[in-house]
Design brief:
The chain is 73% helix and 4% strand. By secondary structure, it is mainly alpha-helical.
């Protein structure tokens, strides 16, 4: 019994989740003690820091979930940020220019996002494009379409479309009061999404099929799994979640922007890889992706509080992505050696 406990403890300590948890703790303590030293008056240990960090999670969280599910199956989508910006532009234009109520504008935005995902799936499954080529091409197409949507009646392209709508604002800004602390409603939504998708991957037949498709496509085909049908669902799901992220951003800022989510282009993918979802597919889960996202946003928030140059922040964020990809590469190579491939 004692040996079993030691073995279980060793597995926990060696897991990616434990490593991320330790890294998160180090970041919190490090920024907490360094922030008042580096910048006078800066406070990392503050309830407002926690609230804004949680708010910042809500947008890339849905990108991470969509990207994570695709990556588990061995695929990817580089059009997520543009789909999100497109969804936001549709909502803003729908409310401000087309006279739609906020509910109809959101439904149209999500429906168009789903169509984009469907087109991505067709390009990959029917025309046999590589996923990164298909989705990067779609990203360019979406950007051009956004310019058309953002052209006003005078023929001028508006980089941002400002709007006011009390109904949408009230929903996006809704908070759950816990004592003196207010938990943003969007955080509850993202937590629910992580739980649902986490259970979908770990506890359902569909989730097991995704891991098999990503880990060994040939074995999945021989097992009778319809990988093409699954791919259609995953691409549509990824685009819809990206559209939802863009709608949340638009509702929060009260404007649709051509450059919305540009800084989160690779945030979801980085979080998924940091959390143990392999770039080659077949491994990882939503719990790790959530921890990876917490690490990324805590890192960004800490740098912002100590007033690090924005360009340096982008450099460090890019370095974090490179580190995650490098670690994933060596992890996959180690795994192939163990099984003799």
């Amino acid at each position: 019994m004692e040996q079993q406990r030691v073995s279980r403890l060793q597995r926990i300590v060696r897991s990616k989740a434990f490593t991320l948890f330790v890294l998160l703790a180090v970041l919190i303590l490090g920024f907490g003690f360094l922030s008042p030293v580096i910048k006078r008056g800066a406070m990392f240990f503050h309830s407002n820091t926690l609230k804004t960090t949680l708010q910042d999670l809500s947008i890339p969280a849905f990108l991470a979930i969509g990207a994570g599910c695709l990556m588990v199956s061995g695929s990817l989508d580089f059009s997520q940020a543009r789909v999100g910006a497109f969804g936001g532009i549709i909502v803003a234009a729908g409310i401000q220019w087309w006279g739609l109520n906020w509910g109809a504008a959101i439904i149209i935005a999500l429906a168009l996002s789903a169509i984009i995902g469907l087109v991505n799936a067709i390009l990959v499954n029917e025309l046999k494009f590589q996923p990164f080529i298909a989705t990067m091409a779609m990203s360019s197409v979406i950007y051009s379409v956004m310019y058309l949507v953002a052209t006003d009646r005078t023929g001028q392209i508006q980089s941002t479309i400002n709007f006011t709508n009390e109904g949408l604002t009230k929903i996006i800004d809704w908070n759950l009061k816990i004592g003196s602390f207010e938990l943003p409603g969007t955080v509850l939504l993202l937590l629910a999404a992580f739980v649902v998708y986490g259970l979908l991957l770990s506890k359902t037949r569909f989730g097991r099929q995704l891991y098999l498709i990503g880990g060994n496509a040939t074995a999945a085909r021989l097992s009778g799994i319809d990988a093409k049908k699954t791919s259609y669902f995953l691409f549509i799901n990824c685009s819809v979640l990206s559209g939802l992220a863009g709608i949340i951003y638009t509702g929060r800022t009260r404007q649709g922007s051509l450059l919305a989510l540009a800084n989160d282009q690779f945030t979801g993918m980085t979080a998924a890889i940091l959390g143990g979802i392999s770039f080659g597919g077949g491994s990882g889960g939503m719990g790790g992706a959530f921890l990876g996202l917490l690490v990324i946003k805590t890192f960004s928030k800490g740098l912002a509080i100590i007033n690090v140059n924005t360009y340096l922040t982008n450099v460090l964020s890019g370095a974090l992505l490179l580190a995650a990809l490098t670690f994933d590469y060596f992890s996959q190579r180690s795994q192939r050696k163990r099984i003799g491939i």
